[in-house]
Amino acid sequence: MKEEEKIGVKFIGTITGLKGTCHASHKVGQKFELNCYDSGGLCGFFYHDIFPYLSVMQFGGKYPWWKRDTMEVECPDHYNAVSLKVERKK
Questions:
Q1: To 10 degrees, the CA torsion angle through 89, 48, 25, 11?
Q2: Whole domain around residue 83: which residue ranges?
Q3: pTM score of the predicted model
Q4: What domain count does the chain have?
């Protein structure tokens, strides 16, 4: 079995905004390759927060608010909010 078949869908996360100071040192424009098996370097708190969405989308589910395989999320630190755009990799 190919590695991609075991992993399933992959996502590209791009930091699109930052309010305050990110304690994980994320910067606007930074990119991550994510999936349910690998955080790709994304802050653990942020990854933990979006993991349920990733797992649904990785294994064939969908949410009504996902438009064209893209979602925008914000980290759980609302005082130093980092915005992330997550896109399903084709």
A1: 0
A2: 3-88
A3: 0.84
A4: 1
